[in-house]
Amino acid sequence: MVAVIDYDAGNIKSVEKAIQFLGGEVIVTRDPEEILKASHVILPGVGSFGDAIRKLEEYNLIPVIHEVAARKIPFLGICLGLQLLFESSEESPGIKGLGLLKGKIKRIPEENQLKIPHIGWNALSYPKSGRLYQGIKEHSYVYFVHSYYLEAEEDIVTAATEYGTYIHASVEKENIFACQFHPEKSSDVGLKILKNFLEVKKEEL
């Protein structure tokens, strides 16, 4: 069973449908027991970093997410869900992220007449091998919607792209995976990424 964490941050329905399309059982929940019983956990999200942290606090989900990490349950953050895993964001000064990974979330530079937010398809390069990208050719295109980007401080970056700056587009550390882009909206490539995530087994971590 895949648990999709519901904290009123949007983008949940498309993730749920993508998992169902792949043949996975899925539950959308904020119940700690259901989340911790799941074989895989997904934290989706669109919107503001600060608002999302406040919602996670309101629903008492921050300890649950840390417990998922500690129990080595395969965990995937998507878009805002990636950003929340890190320490802080320029979008919401003074608000601490989950701190599960080391890095900063920065505003995409407003230069080169690029539109902000970055909305559209970009190709991925692979700085290092990642389990989410097995069987997916480098320079495959995925779909982004964001105004802020990750600059990771650890050697955990498995996919990157360029949009006004070098963007760390995906990370992997033990049981924690995350994508700045939306695999659930990235056609066959995105479905393959989600399939690869669902094939990660806790006992292999």
CATH fold description: Rossmann fold
Based on the coordinates given, report the CATH architecture: 3-Layer(aba) Sandwich
CA distance, first residue to last residue: 18 Å
- List SSEs in N-to-C order: EHEHEHHEHEEEEEEEEH
Q: Structural class, from secondary structure content?
A: alpha/beta
Choose one word for the global shape. globular
Task: Provide the residue-averaged pLDDT.
Answer: 95
Percent of residues in beta strands: 25-35%
Can you identify the CATH superfamily? Class I glutamine amidotransferase (GATase) domain
| Model regions low in confidence, pLDDT < 50 over at least 5 residues | none
Question: Percent helix among the residues?
Answer: 25-40%
The number of helical elements comes to 6
| Rg | 16 Å
Q: How many domains is the backbone divided into?
A: 1
Profile the largest sheet: 7 strands, mixed
Instruction: Please give the number of β-strands.
Output: 12
